[in-house]
Write a structure and sequence with these properties.
Layout lengths: L2 E5 L5 E5 L3 H29 L2 H7 L1 H13 L5 H6 L1 E5 L7 H17 L3 H9 L6 H6 L1 E5 L30 H17 L3 H18 L7 H17 L2
Antiparallel strand pairs: 1-2, 3-4
């Protein structure tokens, strides 16, 4: 299986497994099944009201489905979410609207015009699993890491008597905390090893620099504590 290392804004490299061709094809099949169902329902509905205008306006969700879903569902369509894959930027940042738009525009060549053959050929030919739209946009599709337990995720409910360990988290951004969460996900997914220990230590050091603190906690407990404390402080805003 292919992997891609994505360097985050915190200068931490996270290793993601590139989504396999099978997962991407299955995700596309789910999406197109939903779109076919939508089109059939639209045609029946428009025929019932004998409205050509309704048919034209109703076609917009079909045309914009992949663009809108990836923009508003954090790089996923319904099919991608079911198959647990998502679009990411190779430089570690969140894909921009322009990058999603470029992927969507080139989908006409990748998928529609060539019946998916161009997409299949380029995905198989590139180590990073990129179709033409991905190559142009600087993105790829990766497997979503298994999530850690509920207490380690952002914006979850904490006990009423929870006492934070770190008080000054103003320097941290949502992106910093999301990266910390992904690092925890990675460590959980691959298990303890010299590589995962080094990843955790690097993420801890990056957060300590931003927070201006030095902690005696080992990387995993430190990252979990930061997530909970961040959640606590955000909940008090």
């Amino acid at each position: 299986m292919s992997h891609v290392q994505i360097r985050t804004a915190q200068n931490v490299e996270i290793d993601f497994e590139v989504a396999g061709l099978g997962d991407r094809v299955l995700a596309a099949m789910i999406d197109y099944f939903l779109l076919i169902c939508y089109v059939l329902a639209l045609m029946i509905f428009a025929g019932f009201f004998d409205s050509q205008a309704l048919l034209i306006v109703g076609s917009l969700p079909y045309l914009l489905y992949f663009l809108a879903s990836e923009v508003f569902m954090n790089g996923q369509s319904v099919g991608k979410r079911i198959r647990r894959i998502k679009v990411v930027r190779l430089d570690g940042g969140q894909p921009t609207l322009g990058q999603y738009l470029l992927r969507w525009l080139l989908r006409f060549i990748d998928v529609e015009l060539t019946s998916g053959l161009a997409a299949v050929a380029t995905v198989l030919a590139t180590d990073t699993g990129q179709r033409l739209g991905d190559l142009a946009a600087g993105t790829t599709v990766v497997k979503v890491l298994p999530r850690i337990h509920l207490g380690d995720t952002l914006y979850t409910r904490l006990d009423d008597d929870y006492t934070p360990t770190f008080d000054d988290l103003d320097a941290l951004t949502d992106a910093d905390v999301e990266t910390a969460r992904e690092v925890l996900n990675t460590i959980r997914a691959v298990g303890r090893s010299p590589a995962s220990d080094a990843l955790g230590q690097k993420m801890k050091a990056a957060l300590e620099r931003k927070m201006g603190v030095t902690s005696d906690l080992s990387p995993v407990p430190f990252l979990r504590t930061v997530l909970k404390d961040y959640n606590y402080h955000r909940g008090r805003l």
